[in-house]
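Technical note accompanying the year-one report. For the benefit of new consortium partners, we illustrate the data format agreed upon in the data management plan: each record pairs a sequence with a structure-token string. No post-processing was applied to the example shown here.
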Amino acid sequence: MPGTGPRKIRQVLRATAVISAIGLGGVSSATPVNLSLAQADALAAQALGAGQPRLAYDLSKGLLEADRRNPRAHYYQALALAQAKAYGAAEKKAALAYWHAKSDEQRFQAANLAAELSFADARLTGSQFWLRRAVDHAPSDVARAQTISAFQNVRARNPLRFDFRFSATPSDNVNNGANSPLNVIDGVPVVGTLSPSAQALSGFITTAQVSASYRLAKSDTQETRARARVNARRVDISDPVPGLSGDDLSSTVLELGLTHYLRGKTAAVTWKFDLDGGRVWYAGDPLYDFARVGAARHHRLNDRLLLSFGAAFEDQHYEATRGADSTVASGFAGLGLTLESGAQIGFQVQYRDTDSNGINRASDQWTGIASYQLGRDIGPASLEFSLGISQLDYSSYQVGFIAVPGGRDDRSVFGGVTATFTDWGYMGFVPTLTVTSERSDSNISRFDVEETSITLGIRSEF
């Protein structure tokens, strides 16, 4: 590690050293020697280079007697213990070197050493943790890229994987409410009045998602992982209205599942198979249990073009509402293109069909989305734009006792821009800012909805 700077006061250490082992001949191996701090520091480094970890450790002990916060001494002890293959104890010393470091370069070296020691001790999650810390203190873009590459290599070896996402969203329509107090149904001569709780309400939405997976089996062509995910969405209404609170709009999803990855005949093709089950809570009460099976294929046609498509089937069993059980079939197809500039263009079409005997539940929906991600940063942010349209149809729909002629028909247009601030990250987690806007028009004015929201989020950069 780099030096800690010259000292104004000369302190003397008394060390019993095998001096001849590191090139200072003529002195007995048991001869007491008086060393200055600078001499002890230099000899400790020489001892490590000469493969004398015990000597280096003893000299570092003397340095720590003079200053318990000496990062170089902790670093030397970490290296000495590493040479003795005491990796667990060595990592603790490297951690002390990191916490007492006096510069980013010292922190970078100490964090990288701790990561190497964790890896050598088969604690891969710990190694990833220290590599994330090292990224924050990388002295150059090259060193940062190398550290991220090392993190990705360790993650590929680690059977355990975690992911965390968090977002906070101020919105002018947290309840998906109507933009008018009147309820007009096309083809029906009666005009209704909506309650305040059915009209758009402003507020705040907080979402947190934690997921984990564990690799059960792996070979050159396939991999199987067990997964768990918890997604919590909490709503706060700025101006509560009678009969509705934020808790009534909050939800939680718990999901457990298996994922199997299978490489096709070439490395350019990957199949992904999912089997999931879980429960959804809404307004604090169980809403429905679900079981889902899905498959997707990703085919890299060339270095710049990626084709993806897939389908899923989900069975939903509702806890309270009779006749509401549903079967959902969905599919998607997408195309991604990377331009010479590094920019990325994406197109995706989605279809979702819900079959149910429940009132107002059977529907089908088409959605098309186009996205564009710039190949360069603008100021401190990388930008991604998206634009989409959606068509949602219910073959039959009922409002109270009124059967809506021709069923319900919603058409939506939505778009957004996401800015990711990679220069403002911490341990590889970066802030994001997303602005979205959506407008839906329906033959039932209750579902004429407009919403604009700003989402502050945190996600992993790598």
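Partners are asked to follow this layout when depositing records. The mean pLDDT is 90.
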